Amino acid sequence: MKKVLFATTALIATGGMAAADVTLSGSGRFGIVYNSALDGAGQSKTKIEKRMTINVDGTGSTDTGLDFGGRIRLRSDEGDAASSAASANVWMGNDMFRITVGNTEGALVNRIGYFQGSIGLTGLHWANVSFNMGSASRFILNTYSSRGNAGDVVRLDFNVGGFGVSLSSDSTGDHLSNGSEDGIAISYNFGDWNVAAGFAKNANNSAVSATERDMFSLSAAGNIGDFGVGIQYSDLEDVASKVVLNGEYDFGQTTVAAFVAHTDEDTVGSAGIGAAGEETEYGIGFTHSLGGAVLAGGISRNYTDETMADLGVRFNF
Amino acid sequence: MKKVLFATTALIATGGMAAADVTLSGSGRFGIVYNSALDGAGQSKTKIEKRMTINVDGTGSTDTGLDFGGRIRLRSDEGDAASSAASANVWMGNDMFRITVGNTEGALVNRIGYFQGSIGLTGLHWANVSFNMGSASRFILNTYSSRGNAGDVVRLDFNVGGFGVSLSSDSTGDHLSNGSEDGIAISYNFGDWNVAAGFAKNANNSAVSATERDMFSLSAAGNIGDFGVGIQYSDLEDVASKVVLNGEYDFGQTTVAAFVAHTDEDTVGSAGIGAAGEETEYGIGFTHSLGGAVLAGGISRNYTDETMADLGVRFNF
Amino acid sequence: MKKVLFATTALIATGGMAAADVTLSGSGRFGIVYNSALDGAGQSKTKIEKRMTINVDGTGSTDTGLDFGGRIRLRSDEGDAASSAASANVWMGNDMFRITVGNTEGALVNRIGYFQGSIGLTGLHWANVSFNMGSASRFILNTYSSRGNAGDVVRLDFNVGGFGVSLSSDSTGDHLSNGSEDGIAISYNFGDWNVAAGFAKNANNSAVSATERDMFSLSAAGNIGDFGVGIQYSDLEDVASKVVLNGEYDFGQTTVAAFVAHTDEDTVGSAGIGAAGEETEYGIGFTHSLGGAVLAGGISRNYTDETMADLGVRFNF
């Protein structure tokens, strides 16, 4: 027997008792992906892309107005032997303050516009993310994991007016005195604009002081007439710095987005880029609304001069 | 706090927005299974059977009437260390056309009545499935996996009137140019009757041309008065052919079902049957409605002359 | 799109059809845990605690009034690489009789008050559980596993008036004639009081008769004025016996709970306690209602004279 959940807020009075619910939401996508790098014997440059995501969210609030909740995500990609169930985060707070514990973004990823300029159906090389510098720092910062665990993050968020501050630490969930990424980030919203800055000590979670690397990032994004524009900059100690510019424009049901990114290694090869010590990456993509689903595609070029492209549909439920 | 989903279609208007929902459904069963083959030292011919299944279905539709969705299944059997979450499939289409990507049936399993004549609580030897020939081809075709992944299938379904065609390929979700089962199947419904035929190239997913084996299958099923009857036939290149006849009869709350199957090896031993080169398998079972749950049981004999039997209850939610 | 499940029983008529539903519920908690035992090089005595639990319950009933159902639990703790999906149990029965199959408590854990006197946010050493004697028998009895499988338990429960009997066996879900914990337990409720007793043959699931150990347990709990009190006793053959006394008192929104436990080894070292051959364990904790969430904490001392303490919040949804 099929069950249908109501796609609207329940209005049934729950009397004096504190409200608490478990809700389901999710998304799906499929399409085709091209990657020029996969040109070896027995390899195919194209593959089918498939993803399904289900979010299981528990939420509630106390009589005194404190909200609480938690999330477990189910995720399935093409090529998986089975769906994954990501480690949970749990949280408590109100409009001004929240603590989140578990599999969640660190302070920087929570505040800074690292994902500005994401393109295509799948994100392709994710070269638009300023903390992805060459091969040395790919998704180095604490980032929510849809399949695993960001690493036992504890994050505190404060918001007053348009101003916000986040503090985070990771590697907190074991009885080990191991290396921890400790971050602070601030953000400010005014009108259509958002600016943010953050600093992470030991962004690479090194257990040895000598090899700790700190990261500093800035971002700004907003609208100029019908254009959306953004900039982000990250510097990883002794590795490299990267600046990313992005823009997008809406033509009715269609949006076109593009980015260009430039990485400068601190010493040649320090970010895995190679001989030149610097590299420019870029990408362009589009989305077209199907009125409940979206057609999306894009093409990008990364620091190894390889090309990725994709095309497909995605939808939410 | 317990939450209750409504066992009816939601009637709340969602205005102009496209509808999208996540729904849960499932089933359970338990009972006892006997298997004469398990007669070694330290073995027991009987065991307790237990299964629980939860389907997590995301569905929606666009303003233009295109439907989309996806499914993740949770499954737990007796003896499991934990429940499994099967890889997802996602789909999009309408009444005439649908594309399904991921963990899903191939064209043949989607159209042909391979599961006609399934008996008992658990299916026992599944000797009624015509593509199960001896030990050589057990569940060889792309079949939805409740615990894992059918293998990154892409399937296209077309339906007009009672006529339907499906096309499928697998092994599409990686960047490898590996062996693929490519299938086509057609079906036609008229009154209480259904006939179907299909052909799979490289049904055994061989990466080497020389060992590719093609499969051809036919099925028909319908009603003659109070009797339901069915026939299916499969031929796997260089291995064997198998024909299965099945019938069932309803006595009020009770249904009795039976099948007889005959396998002919192409050369003696080519399907793992052994000396005779041919074998007859058969089974009989019943279901009795408990008005919301079902009592079910059966007994079957397979190509190794072993006997399985089961008895138990199953129910849906 | 977010979906909200109704936190009340559905009142929509389902006509003559048997009712069946899948419901979601769960809980979360986070806080800090101290453990004096973790004082080695590179270790930290404190860690962050995080847990999220989601119960997926399928339930229904037949036209004749027989209820049925099943449960799969999702669980995520701090330090996990991913969330776990526990093996399911399925059940059928009515007010007087129920059979439960799969990942479920054995007869003893189902009837006896082993968890009387649980303290703190997390339970700390769980030294209040009388079948936890030293290191030899930690969670030795069949106990529902929130992450894995109790071991294919079959349990029968009978309830008439305040009187109840449970019978159970385990290791039933494979075709092996291996060692099985077979248990019987009885309980009786009168007014605010509950008493229970149980016996488990081969509580340690030994496959060899010579090393089988039987367990016998008793418990009683109830209220004396504003005080809640309990006692439990367990004896594990050739290992040890343990008695636990617990009490609690409610001060409005705050409850204080404490226990003291004493273990006597049958021979010195038989339960892993060490030189003395006997040991006293104790703990004290509190909960304070936040009106929908709970602040909880505690401190306990175990048989190795180590101290654990915790403090945090927990909530249900």
UniProtKB/TrEMBL annotation, chains A, B, C:
Record domain Porin: where: 7-296
GO CC annotation terms, alphabetical: membrane
Pfam families per the UniProt record, alphabetical: Porin_4 (PF13609)
GO molecular function terms noted in the UniProt entry: porin activity
Domain of life assignment: Bacteria
Family matches, as SUPFAM superfamilies: Porins
Annotated protein name in UniProt: Porin domain-containing protein
Organism: Neptunicoccus cionae
